[in-house]
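new request in #modeling-help
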Amino acid sequence: MNLPILMAAIVFWLAAWAFNEWLVRQRFESDAANSAARFAVPLLFGITLLVLWEGIVRGFSVPSVLLPAPSMIWQRLISSVPTLMADFRQTFLKAVLTGYALGCGLGFVVAILIDRSPFLQKGLLPLGNFVSALPVIGVAPIMVMWFGFDWQSKVAVVVIMTFFPMLVNTIAGLAASSHMERDLMQTYAASWWQTLIKLRLPAAWPFIFNALKINSTLALIGAIVAEFFGTPIVGMGFRISTEVGRMNVDMVWAEIAVAAVAGSAFYGVVALIERAVTFWHPSIRGGRA
Amino acid sequence: MREESFLRDKLLPVGTVVALLIVIWYVAAVFLNAPFERDTAARAGTEIGFSEIVHNTMAQERPVLPAPHQVIAEIWDTTFNKPITSKRSLVYHAWITLSATLLGFGIGAVLGILLAIGIVHNRAMDRSLMPWVIASQTIPILAVAPMIIVVLNAIGISGLLPKALISTYLSFFPVVVGMVKGLRSPEVIQLDLMHTYNASKAQTFWKLRWPSSMPYLFTSLKVAVAISLVGAIVGELPTGAVAGLGARLLAGSYYGQTVQIWSALFMAAALAAVLVMIVGFAHTAVLKRMGAKP
C-alpha cells in the first residue's frame, strides 16, 4: 500500500470539492469570467475523478489487470495510435456514420410519406413507440448472418436501431404546429409543400433533433455490439472483445476512451447544429441546453 | 373534434399495419429461403415448381428468415412443452434475464432518484455532476460490458450482479434527467406558498416537490426499464453464453439456429412490453391515488 499517493489524491479531491463549492457561489464582474467559471466547475470535477482513480489504483496497488491507472491507459493510447485509428475508421467512419445517415434519413422520409395518411399514422405511431422500447440490439446476430461479417451488417443494425426513434419523433414534430398557424397558411392559399417547408418542418426541428441526439449514441452502441457477433479482424467491438480475452485491459480502456471521445464529439456536433437551427426555441434562448 | 373510438382509431389502423407486416414477412421468407430450395433441387437433379418452393420455404430446418408460424411454434414448444427448470426452456432463460433486469433497474432507479435529489438541492453538485451524467451516456457502456463482467468475475463477484450493474448504469440516466426536471417542476408561486407556511426544506420536499415529480418519474421509469432489459441481454453476451436470452441469441448465431434467435428475440420483446406495461399501470394507480383526473 502506498499511503502518500493515496493521501495526496484524497487531499486533492477535498480541495477541488471545496473550490467548486466556492466557485459556484461567486458572481464575477465580467461575462467572460462567469462563463469561464461555469466551464471550469465540471472540468475540475472530471480532473478530480481522474486523480482519485489514479490515487486509488496506485495507493492500493490494484493489479493492472483489474483496473489500469489513467496514466497507463494514456501511454497505451499514444503508443497504439495506428491500430486505434484503423478500428475507428472501420467502426465509426464506415458503420456508424453510414448507418446513422441511412437510418435517420429513412425515418424522416417515411414520416413525411405517411404524413398525408392519418390512417397509416395511427397504425404506425403505436408500433413505432413499441419498437423503440424493444431490445432492438438483438437483431444483430441476424443481420450478421444476412449481410456478412464486414461493416455492411453493422450498418444494417444501426439503420434498424435509429429508424424508429426518428420516425416517431418526426411524426410527433410534424403535428407540433398549432391549428391557428395551419389555418393562417390556408388563408395564404399555401400548398401542402409550402406549408410543410415554411411552417411544419421548422416547428418539427426540436423533435427531429431530439431523435438525432438519441440516435447518435444508439448508433455507436449498435455498431460496437454488432461486432461481438462476428467481424473481420478490425473494429472497436472486435478489439474490445479480443483484448479482454488476452487480459490486455489497458488496450480495452484505450479503445473505450476513443469510443467515449468519439461518442461525445458526435453528440456535441449534433447539439451544436441544433443550437444553430433551432435558435428560437425557449430551451436554447434560456441559455440552458 | 370527433370522439375517439377504440375500434376506428386504435384497433383498425394498428391491426392493418401489423397484418401488412406479417404479409411482407411471409413474402420475404419465401424470397430469402428460395435459393436454398433451388440449390437442393439442382443438386438432386430435379426440377422444382414454384408452389413446391413456397411450400418448402415455410418449413426449413435452418431458414435464412423463418416464417412467422415457425417462430410461434418454437416459442410455444420451448415455453409450454418443456419443464421450467430445463435449459431448453425459454422461460428458464427469460427468468434469468428478467432477474438481472429487475435488480439493475431497482438499483438504477434508487441511485437516479438520490442523485436527482442531490442535484436539485446542491448547486455545486448541479454544476459539476450534471454535465458528467450526460457525458456518461455518450460512452457506449454496452461496449464496456464484457470488461465489467470479466473484471468483476476476477474479484469474485459473479452471477447476477455484474449484469445488473450494466443495467444500473444504463437505467439511472433517464431517472436522473426526469427526476431533476420533475423535482424542479413546482412553480415559483407554489414554492413561495411553502415559504409562507414556514415549511422546512424536508417538508417542501415531501409535500410539494416529491408529489409533483411523480409523472416525470414514471415516464422515465418506463424508458429505464426498457433500457435495463437491453443492458441485461448484452451483459449476457460475453459471459460465455451460459444462460439467459442474450446467451440464446449468441448460441443461436454460432450454430445458425435462426428459429431459436427469432424466438429469443420475440421473448425479449414480450418481456419489454410487459415490463413497460406494469410501470404504466403503477403510474395510473399512483396518479389516481393522488387524486389526479383520469
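bot summary: Residues 192-227 of chain A form the longest helix (36 residues).
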